[in-house]
């Protein structure tokens, strides 16, 4: 019978266990037996464990080594601060509360910072326990430095983790596919269902959840924000081209303006893909922007509106052009975002400034904005930081008040076993308690049989560490705690004479930590992100209604209002009617609430939330609906060139009002969902509309109907209900969304 190959996860765990074991053992044995420095040995042992096992730092060997080196100054500062604050229990607890919150909240900076948080907290936890010995600080720092340097060397030289494919490579591959599709459309090959399937599959691969954590552009800096926006805009290009390829009526007669724009889109996508691979300079977005403006101006001329004797064919042509503009504008967004990400551009290339608001501020300002934006009780990052700080502070208070001999283990249990929901915490601590009991019994047997023979503990430590660090992350908390109990027993028995009470202390301390963690999980936001994702999505939907109304008012204008000149070379030069204060405020509120809801949804998926096809609201589709509204608010006013008759203005405002009301109703998530039905553009109104106005009326009609389909599909109808009609493969909505600042995937 052939042997079953090891899974990639087990191989990665075994390699990481080998690196951490070698680094920890080298530092521990050298400090203890060659230098006779027990304090140095403790820190040399725990430093690789903190940053190599406890901290899930993402990336390949070089990426992990770089993150560890960046974390080293913080680890040194936390060790020094913990040593100083250990003078009293009160100062140690106060420091634990402040530092626990600050370090945990720093996970908002991105996956690398979030991965290093548990290890950094461990350095303060280890240093703030009695006895209060500030004179040992040089030894503590020496052991820490030795352990970190050894771990960095092992990450680089010993079975290094392979590099992770950067997210920009995924964007480049998707842009190449989009360019090929756009060129095929320009040559007349439009109806191609097989090509549509490939386009949708490529779009799904751009979801941040499909990318390795190390490559996800979720950081607070300008580059990560721009790459995230480029990815979502590219996905929108792919989805729009897929819809064009799926329509049987897309194989219409030749339309020279559309073909010219399609070729320009193909050239722009190809050039942007080459820039992402470093093969060429970043193409200037202005050329595609000028072509879009020219296309908008051409379609507004009476001779190019598509109206003729065959009204059905004329309407299809207008809808095809509207869809093409969506694809072209998204391609321009991706191109401009790449110019910001890797070209160092600090402006929005003539595009709406609010769409690239992050291009101008400094890196420090962007990080401050990320933190201040999450300083709210509605942010799951804020909630997690508060929960962690309270748990660690309570654990330090209990350990100090009861004068526990190994109180460090109480805090370590809180740090490693705490979860974001009460149910998950109870499941974890229950397994951990059983594992610790078994591990304590095994450690007691080891101590009893070995007696005072230190060489037995020295021989057991290395294999125990390797097994614990390779099996624990895969097998679960019971195995992890049980095996780690054996590790600490073998390590501490070499530092001082030990008896079976060491195993007893380990068991009691872990149980105390489990109890504290469970209490904090019950008292501090026990539902985790489930309640927040519902509240966050509801707030985002409520704020989207005013944004939709304001956008439609900016597009469908009554006679006498200021208009851009359709004969100009670019729409950016003349520009749409400026937004009034209410529209700007609606956009700002919607964008902020969207980012909060995206953060809650990202954590909700990690908590084992229900799949999008299950019963209940489709949160991912709701987020895409809001995102699509934000995108429309950026682009639709730029495509408007004409004064609409009063009947058209009345229709647009009434249709937008009905959709906004439906969004308010959907925010309550009724069990049967909401049926959103904006008034379709009447045929007689389209026939009577002036030539420059008709295209923008079709744009608004298409946008509102698409938003309505997404809104209707949010309700919990399951995989066979109306939701399936409004989204593509695997729950992806028909209209993707490239938000102005995507925060999560």
- Per DSSP, the total helix count is 26
List the helices and strands in order: HHHHHHHHHHHHHHHHHHHHHHHHHH
**Tell me about the biggest sheet?**
none
The low-pLDDT segments are 563-579, 609-614, 717-745
- Share of helix among residues? 55-70%
Global Rg: 30 Å
Question: Hey, roughly how much beta strand do the residues contain?
Answer: under 5%
Question: How far is the first residue's CA from the last residue's CA?
Answer: 42 Å
Describe the global form: elongated
Overall mean pLDDT score? 81
The structure class reads mainly alpha
Structure description:
- The protein is mainly α and 745 residues long.
- The protein has 26 helices and no strands.
- The chain has helices at residues 8-34, 38-54, 61-85, 89-105, 111-127, 137-157, 167-186, 193-204, 222-246, 256-276, 286-299, 311-343, 363-373, 380-401, 408-417, 422-450, 454-475, 477-495, 501-523, 529-555, 571-574, 581-606, 619-635, 646-666, 683-688, 694-713.
- α1 packs antiparallel against α2 (38-54) and α14 packs antiparallel against α19.
- The protein is elongated, with a radius of gyration of 30 Å.
- Residues 563-579, 609-614 and 717-745 have low confidence and may be disordered.
């Amino acid at each position: 019978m052939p042997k079953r190959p090891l899974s990639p996860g087990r191989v990665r765990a075994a390699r990481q266990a080998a690196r951490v074991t070698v680094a920890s053992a080298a530092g521990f044995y050298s400090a203890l037996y060659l230098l006779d420095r027990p304090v140095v040995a403790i820190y040399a042992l725990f430093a690789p464990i903190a940053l190599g096992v406890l901290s899930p730092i993402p990336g390949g060997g070089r990426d992990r080594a770089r993150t560890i080196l960046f974390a080293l100054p913080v680890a040194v500062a936390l060790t020094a601060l913990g040593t100083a604050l250990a003078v009293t229990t009160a100062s140690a607890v106060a420091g634990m509360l402040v530092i626990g919150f600050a370090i945990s909240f720093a996970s908002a900076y991105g996956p690398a910072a979030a991965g290093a948080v548990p290890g950094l907290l461990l350095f303060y936890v280890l240093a703030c326990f009695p006895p209060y010995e500030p004179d040992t600080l040089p030894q503590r720092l020496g052991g820490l430095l030795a352990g970190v340097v050894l771990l960095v060397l092992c990450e680089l030289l010993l079975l290094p983790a392979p590099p992770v494919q950067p997210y920009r490579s995924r964007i480049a591959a998707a842009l190449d596919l989009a360019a090929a599709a756009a060129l095929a459309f320009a040559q007349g090959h439009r109806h191609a269902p097989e090509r549509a399937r490939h386009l949708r599959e490529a779009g799904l691969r751009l979801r941040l959840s499909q990318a390795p954590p190390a490559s996800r552009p979720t950081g607070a800096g300008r580059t990560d924000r721009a790459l995230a926006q480029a990815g979502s805009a590219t996905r929108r290009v792919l989805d729009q081209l897929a819809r064009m390829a799926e329509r049987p009526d897309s194989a219409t007669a030749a339309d020279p303006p559309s073909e010219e724009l399609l070729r320009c889109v193909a050239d722009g996508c190809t050039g942007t893909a080459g820039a992402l691979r470093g093969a060429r300079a970043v193409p200037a977005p202005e050329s595609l922007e000028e072509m879009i403006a020219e296309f908008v101006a051409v379609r507004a001329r009476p001779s190019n509106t598509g109206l003729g004797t065959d009204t059905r064919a004329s309407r299809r042509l207008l809808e095809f052009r509207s869809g093409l503009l969506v694809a072209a504008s998204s391609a321009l967004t991706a191109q401009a975002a790449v110019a910001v990400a890797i070209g160092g551009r600090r402006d929005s290339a003539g595009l709406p400034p609010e769409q690239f608001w992050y291009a101008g501020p400094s890196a420090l300002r962007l990080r401050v904005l990320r933190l201040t934006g999450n300083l709210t009780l509605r942010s799951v990052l804020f909630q997690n930081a508060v929960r962690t700080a309270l748990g660690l502070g309570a654990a330090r208070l209990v350990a100090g008040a009861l004068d526990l001999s190994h109180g460090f283990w109480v805090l370590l249990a809180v740090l490693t076993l705490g979860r974001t929901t009460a149910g998950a915490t109870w499941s974890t601590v229950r397994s951990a308690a059983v594992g610790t009991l078994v591990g304590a019994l095994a450690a007691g047997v080891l101590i009893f049989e070995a007696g005072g023979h230190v060489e037995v503990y020295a021989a057991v430590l290395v294999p125990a560490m390797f097994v614990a660090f390779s099996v624990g992350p895969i097998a679960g908390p019971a195995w992890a705690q049980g095996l780690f109990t054996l590790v600490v027993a073998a390590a501490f028995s070499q530092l001082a004479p030990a008896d079976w009470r060491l195993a007893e202390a380990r068991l009691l301390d872990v149980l105390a930590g489990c109890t504290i963690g469970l209490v904090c999980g019950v008292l501090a936001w026990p539902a985790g992100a489930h309640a927040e994702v519902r509240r966050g999505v509801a707030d985002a939907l409520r704020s989207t209604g005013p944004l939709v109304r304001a956008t439609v008012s900016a597009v469908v204008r009554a006679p006498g209002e200021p208009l851009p000149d359709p004969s100009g070379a670019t729409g950016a030069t003349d520009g749409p009617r400026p937004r009034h204060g209410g529209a700007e405020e609606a956009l700002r509120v919607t964008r902020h609430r969207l980012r909060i809801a995206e953060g809650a949804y990202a954590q909700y998926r990690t908590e084992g939330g229900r799949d999008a096809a299950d019963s209940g609201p489709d949160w991912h589709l709701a987020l895409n609906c809001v995102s699509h509204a934000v995108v429309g608010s950026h682009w639709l006013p730029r495509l408007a060139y004409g004064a609409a008759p009063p009947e058209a203005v009345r229709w647009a405002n009434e249709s937008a009002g009905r959709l906004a009301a439906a969004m308010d109703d959907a925010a309550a998530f009724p069990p049967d969902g909401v049926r959103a039905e904006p008034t379709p553009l009447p045929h007689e109104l389209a026939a009577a509309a002036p030539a420059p106005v008709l295209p923008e009326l079709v744009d608004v009609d298409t946008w509102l109907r698409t938003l309505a389909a997404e809104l209707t599909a949010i309700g919990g109808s399951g995989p066979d209900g109306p939701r399936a009609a409004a989204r593509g493969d695997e729950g992806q909505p028909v209209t993707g969304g490239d938000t102005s600042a995507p925060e999560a995937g």
